[in-house]
Amino acid sequence: MNKQKEKARHPFYEETIRTESVFEGRMISLQVDTVRLPNGETATREIVRHPGAVAVVAIVDGKMLVVEQFRKPLDKAQVEIPAGKLDAGEEPEAAARRELEEETGYRARSIRHLSSFSTSPGFAEEIVHLYYTDDLEQGEVHLDDEEFLTCEAISLEQAQRYIEEGKICDAKTLLAVYAWRMHALTGSF
Q: What InterPro entries does the annotation carry (predicted)?
């Protein structure tokens, strides 16, 4: 069955009547859709379009690689796992390998997909593909021209402290820490 028919059959499906493009940026775009609600009324939905992203839980010598960088929307520095957006036509695994090496200088000899999740389904279509590796070799850091960050390897205890201190507060890194803890306790994800 095709996805359109499947969506149309859901009792809460919202049919798009009109789409207005509001902003086209280099990373995101914003549109306002007018939709028909299940009860026949209409409403508007503000939607952020994003190409998707990848993130990597990378463990080296029992510690997780993280980067610290300034995040303007929060107006503060954050500690996060290596991550970045998908380039046009890029496969998520290739992007995960690329971002890991660009930001940390480590290359994954093998890498495993853990999960794909939406970041804010109420207004954004972004999907993050989360990967795991503990099979690393030294590569080279290749930061983008507008990217300023530092990399460190932290213990599970340090990660927990960073969460308590608010240094780690983004969903992908919180999920990574909890997945890492689960793996440490049970041997699986």
A: Nudix_hydrolase, NUDIX_hydrolase-like_dom_sf, NUDIX_hydrolase_CS, NUDIX_hydrolase_dom
Q: pLDDT digit of tens for each residue in the chain (189 aa)?
A: 456 665 557 999 999 999 999 999 999 999 999 999 999 999 999 999 999 999 999 999 999 999 999 999 999 999 999 999 999 999 999 999 999 999 999 999 999 999 999 999 999 999 999 999 999 999 888 887 888 999 999 999 999 999 999 999 999 999 999 999 999 999 998
d(CA 8, CA 151): 46
Domain containing residue 15: 3-49
> Sign of the CA dihedral 134, 118, 177, 100?
positive
CA distance linking residue 44 with residue 155, whole number of Å: 45
User: What CATH number has the domain bearing residue 106?
Assistant: 3.90.79.10
The residue out of 49, 66, 85 marking a domain boundary is 49
Q: Are residues 37 and 113 in the same domain?
A: no
Q: Which residues contact 105 (CB under 8 A, 6 or more apart)?
A: 138, 139, 140, 141, 151
Burial grade of 6 (CB within 10 A; 0-12, 13-18, 19 or more): exposed
